[in-house]
Write a structure and sequence with these properties.
Elements: H1 11-23, H2 28-43, H3 45-62, H4 70-78
């Protein structure tokens, strides 16, 4: 369920945001939500680390590396052979 948030901004900024949002076929609320989500995701280290592990897992799986071979794969990469 959504909740309401009240913020204070200069009228000129509000007008510009509204104008750009309309040009993109969005509401001002849509734009503000997107910006807040981007703000949080750019500062959420846990999400960044989770995403990093998912990418590493994907690359290792694509190369056929199993869980048992992970320590060896790490050593190969550190030696510059991976």
């Amino acid at each position: 369920m959504s909740t309401q948030m009240i913020i204070r901004i200069e009228p000129e900024l509000k007008d510009k945001v509204s104008r750009f949002a309309r040009a993109e076929g969005k509401t001002t609320s849509d734009v503000v939500r997107e910006l807040l989500e981007e703000y949080i995701s750019s500062r959420d280290i846990a999400a960044y680390v989770d995403n990093l592990w998912e990418r590493i897992e994907g690359r290792l799986s694509a190369q056929g590396v199993t869980a048992e071979r992970i320590p060896g794969a790490i050593q190969e990469i550190r030696r510059g052979k991976g």
